[in-house]
Amino acid sequence: MSEKIYSTVPPTPGSEPYWEGAKAGKLLIKWCRDCSKPHHYPRGVCPHCLSTHLDWKQASGTGEIYSFSIMRAAKPVYVIAYVTLDEGVTMMTNIVDADFAGIKIGQKVKVVFKPSEDDGKLACFTPV
Amino acid sequence: MSLKGKAYIVGAYEHPTRKAPDTSLAQLHAEVAKGALDDAGLTKNDVDGYFCASGDTPGLGGLSMIEYMGLNVRHIDATDTGGSSYLVHVGHALEAIAAGRCNVALITLAGRPRSEGMQTGTAPRMGNVQQPDVQFEFPYGPAIANMYAMVARRHMHEFGTTSEQLAWVKVAASHHAQYNPHAMLQKVVTVEDVVNSPMVADPLHRLDCCVISDGGGALVLAKPEIARSLARPKVKIIGVGEANKIQGGGLALDLTYSAGRRSGKAAFEMAGVTPADIRYASIYDSFTITVIVQLEDLGFCEKGAGGKFVADGNLISGIGRLPFNTDGGGLCSNHPGNRGGMTKIIEAVRQARGEAHPKVQVKNHDIVLAHGTGGSLGTRHVGATVILERE
Ligand SMILES: [Zn+2]
Fold first, then answer.
1. Domain for residue A80, yes or no?
2. Nearest CA in chain B to A82
3. Nearest-5° Cα angle at B337, B333 to B340
4. Does residue A4 fall inside a structural domain?
5. Contact between B214 and B112 (Cβ < 8 Å)
6. Inside any domain, residue A5
7. Any CB–CB contact under 8 A between B150 and chain A?
8. How many Cβ pairs within 8 Å bridge chains A and B?
9. What whole-number distance in Å separates Cα of residue B97 and Cα of residue B390?
10. pTM beyond 0.95, yes or no
11. Rounded to a whole number, what is the distance in Å from the CA of A91 to chain B's nearest CA?
12. Residue of A nearest to B201 (CA)
């Protein structure tokens, strides 16, 4: 069976490093130099203080499931989730390479990159 | 200056259609406008303020519809907060009338997702690529149903809420829908029917989801002097509130509560009443979980106790403590344009006037509430609350 190719949405100015990072197998999140907080999804302006002094930093790539849903109405079935990264931000993602019936809130997961259109990669998570 | 009582809802009309393949979107807007004006005993020439949501109205903001209907207005508001827009519009129209910016405000909603074959809840919708969150969310397949399912899953995890408790919301709606000849689903269902229906987005079953329908609705608001000159029962706007909810840049994501916490507080404070004073509530029911979360946030029960609150028929008119959505709501009657806020207000107006179906009309009450959420409980949304009093 061939692997699912995720759809993509074109980057907007400033978001290219996130997608380049994903291609290289790195999950990047934005940190603010002024208020020292991370945020996700990544923006050009810090949502905590509106500073533009932001840095991309590689995330540990580990976290835990905050909530999830198995999309039974879809073919193929997929699992959407919110995963809270060890850095504190919660991101929307898919849980992959897992026994769907065994997925639980609070479960530890790690990032795994899956192929997307235009030779890209998308950060998904799998149970550790 | 308090806005309490500075405007009345004098006209309300719900389109009877649930499928309108041969009627244009513009015509649906105009038909509901005519219906609400007839209900009020006013004409289009009395309207000097027009309110609509830019997302369900064809053309730029309200401009095309204003011309299509031949209106001459001096106040326009095309605020779009999704399904809660029309509850927001009631508050904005109240402000405009109180400020003298208009005397008679018309609010319309229409939509044809059923005729257009839209898979409202199960097919992810991309939106504009400039929308900043889209590239980071759309690839993961966020449909409406699975986003609300994540809310339900977390509620179950934190508070022990069960699928059977969720099902009671649908059961109550179906008890009411049996008396609504226009309702899409008129059959009374049981808890077992709901939990045994096919899983759409785990833990939400098909019968946890609202219907997809065409249709629309309209409201006419007027200043007190005009309301008193009309023959219809007087339904005074005594409380309004609107509020948004965000994820705090990913640091404050909490799916257990909604913007209703803030919009409800504002509306109750303005009205000078408490949830205990409310004997009928229209609560946006895109999914069963939506009702439970919003009831908690409005203060009808403690946070986390919503599952217990709705169980055992507590939302059924004549049986329970808080009759809700006595037209059958979005779960059974209709969900025109995928936007449930308008029909929530219309049924609350029927209840306040004493014009709901006799089998579901709530007795001995003066104060009713309508509340809704627009956007997604699972991401970003706006909640809006309206409290009405029969004068
Ligand atoms: Zn900052």
1. yes
2. B150
3. 55
4. no
5. yes
6. no
7. yes
8. 126
9. 19
10. yes
11. 7
12. A71
